[in-house]
Amino acid sequence: MVEGVGLLQLSLSSEVRCRNSSTLHFWTDSQVLSYRMVGAVELSGVARALSEFNRWGGVVLAKLVLLFEDSLNVRPNRLVPVRLGMPRCIACFACKSQYLPCPRTWDVRSVAARCPEINVQVRRRTPLGNQKNLPAIDRQLEERQLGQFIPLHYHFVMLQDRLRLESFKNAIARLVQPSMHVVELGGGTGVLSSFAAQQGARVTCVERNPVLAEKAGCFLRENGLHESVTIVLQDALDFVPTEPVDVVICEMLHVGLLREKQLEVIDAFKRNYRAKFGLSVALPTFIPEASVLMVQPVEQDYDFAGYWAPVPLFQSLECVQESTVELGDLEPYSVVSYDEVFPFRFCQEQVLPIRQAGHCNALRFVTQNSMHVDMASQRAISWPNQGLVLPLPTGFEVRAGGSLKIQFDYEAGDPLEQLSGSLQVSYIAQRSSLAPLRVNSARRAA
Ligand SMILES: C[S@@+](CC[C@H](N)C(=O)[O-])C[C@H]1O[C@@H](n2cnc3c(N)ncnc32)[C@H](O)[C@@H]1O
Q1: I need a surface site. Which of 30, 138, 371, 419 has the fewest CB within 10 A?
Q2: pLDDT tens across 114-171, in order?
Q3: Residue 94 confidence (pLDDT)
Q4: Residue 206: CB within 6 Å of ligand 1?
Q5: Is the CB of 167 under 6 A from ligand 1?
Q6: Span from the CA of 187 to the centroid of ligand 1 (angstroms)
Q7: Does the residue 132 lie in any domain?
Q8: Any domain includes 133
């Protein structure tokens, strides 16, 4: 039995053996599926059912509650991303929504009949051998950068992000009950604290920016919730609650967990909490529960009204982006479960299969946050924050069957430049090797 956690990959050609009579729970964007496992035959049934919910470029979030013999020991309740052999939502075969959960609901059994046989393969994630030391980051300078400092007007933009607020609101409605004590770390305008207060909870909202703390106070008063929410003007890294906490909400989420300090802040909270209440007191429930970090090879049109500018682009994942051609699937490179020990460093070496020919000149980074998975109601809530399309220094003409080998190295909370500066990419053609082309000249020639 091999120790550790890896990526579980489902594909059309691979195979897995599992212990008899284990129970396997999967959850996806819309449902939790529980299966009793009796050998590989039953497992392929699960894979077929799962493929129904395959809406994230082939990746869904799964919770495994079983041991895989020989190859991998998956801890109970460990979240792992599951990749299926087929891209996107195949439930309806006509679903145009690439990133949002398919609006229709499906009977697993009716779809299973249409799916080919899928087996399972277990792959261990190996860290890069040649880990280099990261340059020191100037903390004072960083404090002034967007991400650490978020100006008030950008908070007003965040209030307009319907999907973001709905996913938090729904998760809070499921998890927070009257008389619970809820803590929000980084409260901003207080909107997420208000959702918890609406459930009848006592809320402590921690915010270190005085302008925001004051604004949150005004808004909460206007909403008649000021008596339920205590605003604490403090750095969340130093915050210690005076009484036990049932739920912690923290939205310092940036794509790739870059820029904002989600991990550092939650880690400090867990440390402070244990120091205050002891190890025997259970940690609160975290919203979100987990984040899945993914990367994808793309062809990006950097033409802005005739002006070519290959720059990092942030894009909404709620709609199809016309200027971005997907050349391969989203490949997960890390899963962060907020109630577990964090992988603070993302030092990756990964091969991205190419599914479509094109000029690969960028990588798209996507982070899907699992807000809450409710086993009882068989529902799951997730939210992808803005995607990041990062230009490559050199573009490649790629063909289906080839693959892109990528390496990068950054720490959670690092500036984008740390990721882009560490990025190394090469193209592995399947048959004939193709020379790399410069991004600009290739696009302009086209
Ligand atoms: C992305 S905003 C989210 C705001 C609000 N929760 C919302 O959802 O609209 C992150 C917030 O965390 C605050 N923040 C960042 N680091 C913090 C820290 N160390 N302590 C307290 N607040 C912090 C920022 O000022 C900002 O208001």
Answers
A1: 138
A2: 333 233 333 323 333 333 444 455 555 555 555 567 888 889 989 999 989 999 999 9
A3: 37
A4: yes
A5: no
A6: 5
A7: no
A8: no
